[in-house]
Amino acid sequence: MALVFLALIFAIGGCATHSGGNGEPSAAADFQQQVANEARIQDVNEQLLSLAAESGIGGGVYRVGPEDQIQVDIFGVPELSREYRVDGSGRIMMPLVGAVAVSGLTLDEVEAVVAEKYGESYLRSPQVSARVTEFRSQQFTVVGAVSNPRVYSVSRQTTLIEALAMAGGVTENAGDTIYLTDRVRDPESGELQVRTLLVPVDDLMRHAGENNVVLGESALVNVPRGGFVYVEGAVNRPGAFAQRGNITVLKALAEAGGPKFEANRSSMRILRRSAGSGDWEHLEVNYSEIRDNPELDIPLKNGDVVVVETDGFKAGWAGFWRTVPGLALLGFRPL
């Protein structure tokens, strides 16, 4: 009789546990997850502000760009001294010498180029001075998952970190890669060329010197929103989790509160859409093995689903122990 009753308890407990494993995460767990995410984003943005302050570029290295207006004075030759608007190709049109490429040059370099042009055929050792009378070229745009996406105008060169700091830092749903597209001058040919960079956020934080580039002309900084991975089954907080950085199975399970007691740790699955056919692929995962050997941990892709199956025996055992206190309250006494 007692054995039959215990078997019944196991069955009831197992059913109850299975239902609970697929339930919605509690409000407290959601709140804890939100607090953790906000703390992480705050840490990233504090690093951005700190690095921006350390890496700020002084105004003395301003480089002329399209739509700037510059005053060029040639000592003793007032008819050649005037204001010039830099055109979209980065040139100014000057009397006698025609088009002079000035985009990307410092004011000292502009003076040297103009002096060389007039010194070749028209003037002997001309003394040239140049200054910017209207800043128009130093604009950049920040879009995507930042606090203040818009066009920014500055009067000096700006680094990538400074641009992100000016945009108020990244938001909670920011992805792990920053895209930069701008125009920079080729050091050999002197021609403006389109540059496209992909900078991982973690690399920018850890190796700012290598990745904190100076923005070129018409810079567009894009911080795409991150994707999601999903964890379901016998975990403490099943749900969707933002894909940030190099998220792996172990990290995703940690964000989901870890496997429950009744989880089958030796047999989990990753469901992944095939890039070609769109069919679901099934990848087997041994949690105990990758936990003991982290080098075997599996990186997750956007849209991956980690399924944690329930071990029937452990579910029954857990259900039994959850049921025993209730039986005692009802006055049950085993025969």
UniProtKB/TrEMBL annotation:
Soluble ligand binding domain ranges (all copies): 140-185, 229-275
Pfam families linked: Poly_export, SLBB
A GO molecular-function annotation: polysaccharide transmembrane transporter activity
Domain Polysaccharide export protein N-terminal: 62-132
Superkingdom of the source species: Bacteria
UniProt entry keywords in alphabetical sequence: Signal
Record-given protein name: Sugar transporter
Organism: Thioalkalivibrio paradoxus ARh 1
UniProt lineage: Bacteria, Pseudomonadati, Pseudomonadota, Gammaproteobacteria, Chromatiales
